[in-house]
Amino acid sequence: MLRTHTCGELNLTNTGIEVTLCGWVQRSRDMGGLTFIDLRDRYGITQLVFNMQGNAVLCEEARGLGREFVIAAYGKVAERSNKNPKMPTGDIEILVDRIEILNSSKIPPFTIEDNTDGGEELRMKYRYLDLRRNIIRKNLELRHKLAIETRNYLNLQGFIEIETPVMIKSTPEGARDFVVPSRMNQGQFYALPQSPQTFKQLLMVAGFDRYFQLVKCFRDEDLRADRQPEFTQIDCEMSFVTQEDILDTFEGLTRQLFKSVLGVETGVFPRMTYDDAMKNYGSDKPDIRFGMTFTDITDLSKGKGLRVFDNAEIIVCITAKGCSEYSRKQLDELTDWVKRPQIGASGLIYVKYGNDGIIKSSIDKFFTPDDLSAILNRSDAEPGDLILILAGKKTATQKALGELRQEMGNRLNLRRPGEFKPLWVTGFPLLEWDEETKRFYAMHHPFTSPVPGDIPLLDTDPGKVRANAYDLVINGVEIGGGSIRIHNKDLQKKMFTVLGFSDELAQEQFGFLMNAFEFGAPPHGGIAFGFDRLCTIFGGGDSIRDFIAFPKNNSGRDVMIDTPARISEEQLKELGIKLV
Amino acid sequence: MLRTHTCGELNLTNTGIEVTLCGWVQRSRDMGGLTFIDLRDRYGITQLVFNMQGNAVLCEEARGLGREFVIAAYGKVAERSNKNPKMPTGDIEILVDRIEILNSSKIPPFTIEDNTDGGEELRMKYRYLDLRRNIIRKNLELRHKLAIETRNYLNLQGFIEIETPVMIKSTPEGARDFVVPSRMNQGQFYALPQSPQTFKQLLMVAGFDRYFQLVKCFRDEDLRADRQPEFTQIDCEMSFVTQEDILDTFEGLTRQLFKSVLGVETGVFPRMTYDDAMKNYGSDKPDIRFGMTFTDITDLSKGKGLRVFDNAEIIVCITAKGCSEYSRKQLDELTDWVKRPQIGASGLIYVKYGNDGIIKSSIDKFFTPDDLSAILNRSDAEPGDLILILAGKKTATQKALGELRQEMGNRLNLRRPGEFKPLWVTGFPLLEWDEETKRFYAMHHPFTSPVPGDIPLLDTDPGKVRANAYDLVINGVEIGGGSIRIHNKDLQKKMFTVLGFSDELAQEQFGFLMNAFEFGAPPHGGIAFGFDRLCTIFGGGDSIRDFIAFPKNNSGRDVMIDTPARISEEQLKELGIKLV
After folding, report:
1. Pairing relation of β-strands B210-218 and B160-161?
2. Does residue B42 sit in helix, strand or coil?
3. In A32-150, where do the E strands start and end?
4. Angstrom distances, CA of residue B270 to CA of A334, B250, B260, B470
């Protein structure tokens, strides 16, 4: 090694020894006859000292070093007179004899500090400099730690990591595939996997019993802040299991990760049905770090002559503790907020329960004080609280109030960072009806098993069929989901029929899986966690991009290497394709 | 779990307990009033017993079970009267009370046995059945074990696993890229990485100090037996290191893998220069499980009037111990073997040193007994040995004799399975001249650093420049290679110039890397192991396909899922491409 020690390990026990450190110049300070340089590497920062009186030439040389120069410094460890208890190396400094410039540096386009002056675009263009910042480096160290803990935990549980192929086959169900033209089979394409779903099921048919993989997956979707065209999953599958076994195993994994990586004990994860989640939180991924659950006041609110209530399918409210003093302006602003197209409510109704016990509302004309009291009563409101009411179509109103609940949670600082509340959501519907295309879609995917008792409903009322499916939610973020799978060819065929596949298309696309089911497929099920999201939750970050070494931007571009890019005519010709 | 135990764990200590096992019917035997079924899962095989006298209905049911049916068997553990000491569960059997058929199975198209009757094509089409065979399952278990040991070793050495992107940019150097058309940036393409080379170097610029990744890489090459379009690398990079540090670190990893996975102590790996490897073995990846090194007899053999020798640049031989009794027919056959186009020798000359001390050769007309004795003497031949001589152009003759040496090693059973002889090869040339395109190519890749003292030769005699590069060879197979990298922009630019890149092309393709070198790039180097090959060597297999769960065939097809395949017109249109 060009160094004897890293910049993070020296302390008073090393006083007096000769060392060589290598690293980057974080900053330098001239203090009269002394020059101090903070030398940085992945492991920490160590202070170098140069003395003008002792060695003027060397000191001048040190003064000539710019930010981010890479140097080797040779010298002796000495106790500092002015100790810095905040730094692990803060008790010592290096009295430098000699330096060697290993590489110079131009002035970086932004500061290499936690609070950098670089904007997102600039940081991404110079991602190799952005990654030098502590805050980003720690995110990737956390990611590594989560990955290695996950692998070791699953290994001890008897899971085998098996690599599934990246170049597979395009399927019409689900999101859009990225495809790869084949040179050796012109006119034909591979597709990049959206998940290794069918392969992991085949591994169960093959008898591997317990499979996992940390695996890159790909979706050609229009991107949002928390989406990347390539992302990583913790992908798992088990044979001869019930839903309970899978929840136990992956609750065990998640608790172990919280404990070993963050030192947090989460306790047993509560469970909630999809119906209860929608009814009480207006979301299938509720943040249960705070209450503010819904109160249904449909029966108390109809027939009072207020048309918006009388025409509503459902009237529900939340109780914002201590918000009775909200001003007119604040309430107008909240009303505008719920009326935005993303939320889609037609209006917001409030009831203030003043600290003085006086009740005021936006519906005083229609509701008697007793009527309002009944609402406050059912909502468990206390003096000082504010009731916020939405009314309309059932699901849309629940979802809108769910959004408002999250927003009020933010405004009231109820979504505490550093607090982690995992939750299993179970009992999902198997199918979702799409009004636009007038067909059912699989809520999870077409391989999800219905609850056995509901199978007859597939013929009579498919929308009512419940799935043997489950999601893991942490702090309102869906971390993963899975299901018990179909392992019977006939049921799988029926499922494709319900989803509108012709027999031919089902056979062409998934024939290999249905054939496999004819050769002794075991009962099986599994789960997949979004690893980028899991890292982001663990790291307390806002954007998954800060937890990916080289992310792409919202147009799917890597601005550092400038891709996607044109390829040569010769390449196109070899592949047998042309640009339109 | 649907089972209480696996099929691999019950023994005499469990006698008398009630158990439920799940698995596949491996085979069944009717023995008078008793029926035996071997029930198989990933963990082993357990014998089930059904007694016609005790329960005729159940016994009939058991007799109806076909091969590969999936069942749950409920019963009691009992000591076997007829123990099988070869099976971990061979002391017990299950007296079955009840069975449940979890899934039936058609008759498999080949037998699920180590020695199957299925050919390669059929096995690949039904890979999920092929994977049920012990021999293949164990290969994938070995692969998992090697992966987890590799990760834990490197983690303990301070390496961080960092995922680099799969959708990157096409570059003209090296093999052909697979490309991915971009929908959001029409007319532009991503490329799949042939290796994460530039990204790992950027991670060093970013200060990550020690990086590794088990990572899928892609090459659109015409395939051979040991090539796959997608393959896996153990990819590593370190900063502030010399070549010695990298060899130490990865020799440590390899020795640890041998020890922990195979229980084999390999000792310190010998090192050999490229020049010595070519001179003594005619290969840059010699199998050193056996000797049979080359003897140069050019000076002893010229001027005897034999034109093939007199016109040769080099005359070299190997000594095949104990082969002096080779018949005319055997020698003719060996001569034909070296004259095949793959080997390319013009002929083969032999000298037999008989057990009786009599010397016979194919060049008796030109060589006196003393001349022949001098050759035998220099070759350390003993009575009973056979000398095989090739002559011609230097490199071609060395390579041809290297092939002959390997072949003789095979024929004499000197390449012993289960014996492992790793070797570092160092001191490679930086560049290779290609006669066809009349230009230099990088022997490793364009980022490899020249030996510092040889840098001036880049201007005067590039072919003479040695690289700071190294390969790990095990048993004659190149497992991996690496180098100290260039970390200086000007040297990198010069390297591209020597390789025939225009400044514009170098900037367009690798500008991001050269720019990064201007912001404090540390000295760094690394290595990559071919993980599929490593697994194959460890597992003692012939084909990497047996160590990959879902491999592709020689046409790049996955015959199980039938890909590559046509995609829809709509997909093509969205991507802005047409078929030619």
Report:
1. parallel
2. coil
3. 34-41, 44-51, 70-79, 92-103
4. 74, 14, 21, 13
55-84 in chain A: CB under 8 A from chain B: 68-70, 72
Q: How many CB pairs under 8 A join A and B?
A: 353
**Is the per-residue pLDDT at B548 higher than 80?**
yes
The per-residue pLDDT for B225 is 66
Q: Which of A43, A567, A578 sits opposite B578 (nearest CB)?
A: A578
B488: closest chain A residue by CA: A103
Q: Which residues contact A60 (CB under 8 A, 6 or more apart)?
A: none
CA distance A390 to A392: 7
pLDDT at A114 over 70: yes
Amino acid residing at B483: S
The reply to whether the predicted model has a pTM over 0.80 is: yes
Whether pLDDT at A222 is above 90: no
- Which tokens in the block code for residue A121? 């675009």
10 Å CB burial of residue B175 (0-12, 13-18, 19+) is: exposed
CA pair distance A475, B537, nearest whole angstrom: 47
Query: Which residue among A148, A190, A556 sits closest to B184, beta carbon to beta carbon?
Result: A556
CB contact under 8 Å between B519 and A580, yes or no, is no
CA of A128: which chain B residue's CA is closest? B206
Residues of B in contact with A2 (CB under 8 A): 240-242, 523
Dist CA B164 CA B179 (whole Å):
17
B375 close to B362: Cβ distance less than 8 angstroms: no
A112 → chain B, closest CA residue? B206
Helices B243-257 and B134-156 cross at an angle (nearest 10°) of 140
Q: Residue A57: what pLDDT?
A: 95
Is B114 exposed, middle or buried (CB count within 10 Å of its CB: 0-12, 13-18, 19+)? exposed
- Would you state the pLDDT for residue B435? 86
B72 within 8 A of B62, measured Cβ to Cβ: no
Interface membership of B103 toward A (CB under 8 Å): yes
Share of chain A above pLDDT 70, in %: 100
Task: For residues B27 and B111, give the distance between their C-alpha atoms in angstroms, rounded to a whole number.
Answer: 11
A131–B203 C-beta distance less than 8 A: yes
A182 close to B (CB below 8 A): yes
Give the chain A residue whose CA is nearest to the CA of B222. A184
Residue A489, helix vs strand vs coil: helix
The H or E element containing residue B156 is helix B134-156
**Residue A175 confidence class, pLDDT cut points 50, 70, 90:** confident
Tell me the two tokens of residue B316. Answer: 């070299």
pLDDT-derived band at B473 (thresholds 50, 70, 90) equals: very high
What is the mean predicted confidence (pLDDT) over A533-550? 96
The per-residue pLDDT for range A250-286, each reduced to its tens digit, is 999 999 999 999 999 999 999 999 999 999 999 999 9
Residue B216 to chain A, least CA–CA distance (Å): 8
Domains of chain A: 12-103 (2.40.50.140), 137-272+423-547 (3.30.930.10), 290-415 (3.30.1360.30)
The string of DSSP codes covering A320-388 is ETT-TT--HHHHHHHHHHHHSTTT--S--EEEEE-TTS-EEETTTTT--HHHHHHHHHHTT--TTEEEE
CB-based contact A550 B165, cutoff 8 Å: yes
CA distance to A380, A520, A525, per residue, from A485 (Å): 42, 14, 5
- B486 Cβ contact partners less than 8 Å away, ≥ 6 residues apart: B447, B448, B449, B492, B495
Q: Using CA of residue A31, residue A34, residue A35, residue A38, what is the dihedral sign? A: negative
Quote the ipTM score.
Answer: 0.95
Work out the percent of chain A whose per-residue pLDDT is above 90. 93
**CB-based contact B132 A181, cutoff 8 Å:** no
Query: Which tokens belong to B290?
Result: 């056996």
- Indicate the SS3 state at residue A149: helix
